Amino acid sequence: ASAAGEAAAPVVVDNDAKPDASSAAGEATAAKAPPENGNDATLAKAEDAAATSPANADSGATAAKTESQAGAEQEFVLANAEGIEPIQEAAGDGPIVIDNDEHVQQKQNLTYEELPTDAGKTKIKIGGRFPVVIASQITSKTAKKGDPIEGRLKYDLKIGDRLVAKKGSVVRGHVNYALKARTILHSLVSPERWYRNSGCLGIDFDEIINERGEHIPCSAAPSRQSRIVKNKAEGRELGVNHYGQITGPWGQQLRYKAVRIGLNFALAPAGVFSFGAMPVALGVIGAANPNFAFSKPVGLNVRHRRLKGFAWGFLSGIPGSWLIEDTTVKGQEAIIKPGDEFLAEFKQEFTGEPETEASLLSGASTKVKGQVVSGGKKKKSK
Fold first, then answer.
1. Can you tell me the distance from the alpha carbon of 221 to that of 75, in angstroms, rounded to the nearest whole number?
2. Of 29, 286, 312, 372, which has the highest C-beta tally within 10 A?
3. CA gap 287, 259 in Å, rounded
4. pTM, to two decimals
């Protein structure tokens, strides 16, 4: 291993997902590979057989070549799917954690996008996106404006052919907006994020610290995505809205409400019989899908989740229970954990130039080019 590989930060991989077929095929190919030191007599017999039968020799060589290519392709797919190659040479102080709860989604996130630059390749244009792996844990329930957050570069950050920061370099930022999860009734009477009861977090990335310890200023925020986290075990389902804020999907809340309104209209012709049919119908749906009963994602690791879904769905079908439901049940909190990955988007042009000592001084209001030089004391004139 190289010196850079020895100094790399440790990698923690949480492989909750089942191993895919490519991994098993790769191991099978490796097991079939012939040993380096074989039996000379066996090799001699094989050479004689190949000499007497040219057709067999050609077919054997073709099969060996095909098997070698298949093994190489499987190894390439496996390395890219599990995120091994982008992480092995990572630099930085803290560990880079990859959470493979959703294996397919993780493979989609491990794509590299060519950053748009100007004609002279001296800066990255506004809107350029780069993947960041979060190394901090923060939740909308306790976060406050100004709280620090830290991540790592997923890939090398380049401007043209110029390397600005290697993968694994530290990306620092802060929380610029935090809102706790609320009840539906609270969200209805509040002008802030009207009728959205899930928690919300806004993040700004301020600087990148490369492997040389240089502080490179930047202005970036999470790029809009429908889903950045979908962890069914923990019941975390998050996306990025058009403001660059991380929150639960609003469409999920609306969908559950629409189903309940539809059931009310469907059972309206039943008259008084609907008072008994409605709780049973909602209870059955809540048992089949607890997310529907609570109007938010319910993790697979929650004990008796289906029983709780039936009970709450049944109670919510009783006439007048909507008032209790809308004043007690809160939406899901926006929880970011180490290993969560999303695309950060530049809000200003990025030149990749490091800050000077003058701009790093405490209380400095402007950025000064050049270095700070301490001048000697002037001699007093007599």
1. 34
2. 286
3. 15
4. 0.61
What does the alpha-carbon distance between residue 205 and residue 145 come to, in Å, rounded to a whole number?
A: 14
Share of the chain above pLDDT 90, in %: 35
Spatial separation of the C-alpha atoms in residues 282 and 290, rounded to whole Å: 10
Burial grade of 184 (CB within 10 A; 0-12, 13-18, 19 or more):
buried
Category of 341 on φ-ψ map: left (φ > 0), alpha (ψ -120 to 50) or beta = beta
End-to-end CA distance of the chain: 67
Work out the average pLDDT over 73-94.
42
| Whether the predicted pLDDT of 182 surpasses 50 | yes
How many Å apart are CA 34 and CA 99, to the nearest integer? 35
What residue type is 28 in one-letter code?
A: A
Nearest to 179 by CA among 243, 223, 131: 243
What is the pLDDT averaged over residues 3-32?
45
